[in-house]
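Schema walk-through. Below, the input block comes first and the output block second. Nothing else is stored per chain. Lengths vary across the set, and this one has 299 residues.
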Amino acid sequence: MKRGLVLEGGGMRGLFSEGVFDVLLENGIMLDALVGVSAGVLFGCNYKSGQIGRGVRYNTRFAKDPRYMSVRSLLTTGNYVNEDFAYGEMPLKLDKFDFEAFNANDMEFHIVCTDIVTGEPVYKKYVKADESLMDWMRASGSMPLVSKPVVLEGHTMLDGGIVNSIPLEYAQSVGLEKNIVVLTQPRGYQKKPFKATWLFRMFVKKYPKVAEKMAVRHEMYNKQLEYVYGEADKGNVLLIIPDEPLNIGRVEGNPDKMRHCYEMGRRKALSMIDEIKNFCSTTSKGDDHSDRLGVEILE
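--- output ---
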């Protein structure tokens, strides 16, 4: 039976997820696959490479560095998160990502992006990294309006959360029968409609399909939440969620808030560690979802 770790996005709220999977690493818990969206893969890559604390370390170190995230970068490059620094200099030189360890781990690593031409999700699976890994993670985490689209393998892409914010059904469709799902909003949260509708009009002319999806994203997200909670009730999912709002911005620049968010994730996982171990050792009680989604997976 294959088991997965499903991570939603949320910008710097992803530090909560890092706190959770760092505790998994410290307890020798490595799942068969990770499925992540946006911040879920940007932080989650460190789970596969076994680099405990790396995400919180480099984000607090470079939080106020304009080379990393800044209006200056947005105005000069078209990306609020600077492509050359965040996906080049930082992971290759300043706080190195361990590609060797990533490749030595046979865990599958699934990245969710959005094709902004078709308005459909795009899925990319890695077991071994190649030179395109950082580009696919960048595509998954490229927030609309403050990022340039990323073109890869015939797809023009932005943030995967536009069309698949909590990719549990996708995880089940690729054979992950039991999943730990880490959410970054507390129980009872419901996403509200995006009020700045004028921003949608910026996409309508060139990318009408994705503009339509952005307009109803709150409905998609709330339906996915309902499904996740239902799967938890069946025993197919173990939910790990914060007990209270994380009080951190998507592009937070306060290192203290970053560390606090990370520690909240750690504390939550530590409080559930026996439950997590038990969940990872029991058999599934639910339905077979392997043919639910007829999706193309790029490898």
